[in-house]
């Protein structure tokens, strides 16, 4: 059997596990997902995770490893050093390869016993690393292998995509090899039989999105670009989801790249120049189906009409009808402003406590007669009002019995010195 298969394809039913907490939007299960959009999401460790991070893959059957291909970048994030391990018969892992590069975006580990380095010519983004020739017995019977993300470019460990190409091992039965071949070619069989025009696959036209319009975390086109305090540009929806995730752990909203908490002077800022370029790009390619699911960010129904020309835009009701209507009639039954105020206060609900009539007449820390608040004061024991020295002397000279301004008479001996607090 000369055919090679990608044993990390979802059709061959692999499984994956990680020893670190992954990001909510980039779980490790994305590496073997069946949906193409989910597969492109890749793996990203949680924002506070530091390397090393171990990812273990379990294959459907023992295989002969030909090559491993790793996409180690995700936007501005990059993993710079990776080690490869294969599980031996005792259950422990033996190291079979390692690679490190600061500039390469793709790491390719090649088994030189199966593939010659001259046959595979990598591009400028790919860096090839040979698998150790001394562990050929492990490469010829691999069921479980492990990737260790050892170093990063001062960011969290990321892995956008993984491929493991090889053939079933020699100790696999013929039935198992045939079942793997059927599983691999299962989706390609309907396209070979051309029975009707509907069975012919239709090619969809897609547009290449400029890298500056992509979110540096999710690698999706942005709708509302925001500049983070770290200088990175992400979509507003990404910031909101990250803040919600931080809130679940009892933490304040922070920069997803640096972890610094937002303040009044350090917070995301809207990028209007990039927003205009995004809108121009979407309007220019609004006929393509790949942009139909994007949320509307400009206009009212103009965005919907640009994408779906068959939709009719409902007209808004005119405001002139409201202006032509008769003005509301005012209730002019009150004769004067004083009556109107009195009537309004009578129907108004009061939320303050009612004040006692006796307490309302009292004047604390002031003379009850002249309302003076400075000087020597005396307290009248009969009515509990205060009177200053000047008012008390004036009443004592004019009449035998003094009289408070409230109308209560009192004698001079019933007045006591009062110290104002």
Automatic annotation (TrEMBL):
Entry's transmembrane regions: none
UniProt xrefs under SUPFAM superfamilies: RING/U-box
Keywords: Metal-binding, Zinc, Zinc-finger
Lineage top rank: taxon: Eukaryota
Domain U-box: 212-281
Entry keyword annotation includes Iron-sulfur: no
GO cellular component: nucleus
PANTHER family attached to this UniProt entry: RING FINGER PROTEIN 37
Protein name (database record): Ubiquitin fusion degradation protein 2
């Amino acid at each position: 059997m000369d055919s090679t298969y990608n044993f990390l394809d979802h059709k061959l039913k692999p499984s994956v596990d990680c020893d670190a907490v992954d990001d909510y939007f980039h779980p490790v299960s994305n590496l073997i997902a069946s949906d193409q959009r989910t597969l492109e999401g890749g793996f990203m460790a949680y924002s506070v995770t530091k390397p090393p991070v171990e990812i273990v893959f379990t294959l459907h059957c023992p295989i002969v490893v030909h090559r491993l291909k790793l996409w180690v970048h995700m936007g501005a994030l990059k993993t710079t050093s990776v080690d490869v391990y294969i599980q031996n018969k005792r259950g422990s892992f033996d190291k079979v390869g390692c690679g490190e590069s600061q500039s390469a975006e793709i790491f390719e580990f090649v088994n030189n016993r199966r593939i010659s380095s001259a046959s595979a010519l990598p591009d400028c983004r790919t860096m090839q690393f040979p698998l150790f020739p001394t562990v050929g017995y492990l490469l010829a019977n691999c069921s479980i292998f492990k990737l260790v993300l050892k170093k990063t470019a001062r960011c969290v460990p990321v892995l956008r995509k993984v491929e493991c190409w090889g053939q079933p091992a020699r100790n696999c039965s013929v039935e198992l090899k045939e079942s793997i071949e059927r599983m691999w070619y299962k989706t390609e069989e309907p396209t070979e039989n051309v029975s009707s025009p509907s069975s012919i696959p239709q090619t969809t036209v897609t547009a290449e999105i400029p890298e500056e319009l992509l979110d540096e975390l999710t690698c999706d086109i942005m709708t509302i670009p925001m500049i983070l305090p770290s200088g990175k540009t992400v979509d507003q929806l990404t910031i909101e989801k990250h803040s919600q995730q931080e809130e679940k752990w009892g933490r304040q909203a922070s920069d997803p790249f640096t972890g610094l908490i937002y303040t009044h002077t350090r917070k995301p800022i809207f990028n209007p120049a990039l927003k205009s370029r995004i809108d121009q790009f979407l309007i220019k390619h609004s006929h393509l189906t790949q942009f139909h699911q994007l949320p509307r960010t400009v206009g009212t129904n103009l965005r919907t009409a640009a994408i779906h020309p068959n939709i009719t835009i409902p007209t808004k009701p005119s405001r002139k009808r409201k202006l032509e209507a008769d003005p509301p009639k005012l209730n002019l039954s009150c004769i004067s402003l004083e009556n109107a105020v009195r009537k309004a206060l009578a129907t108004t609900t009061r939320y303050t406590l009612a004040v006692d009539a006796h307490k309302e007449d009292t004047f604390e820390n002031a003379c009850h007669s002249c309302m003076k608040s400075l000087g020597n004061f005396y307290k009248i024991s009969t009515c509990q009002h205060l009177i200053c020295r000047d008012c008390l002397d004036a009443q004592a000279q004019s009449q035998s019995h003094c009289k408070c301004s409230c109308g209560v008479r009192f004698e001079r001996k019933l007045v006591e010195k009062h110290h104002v607090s």
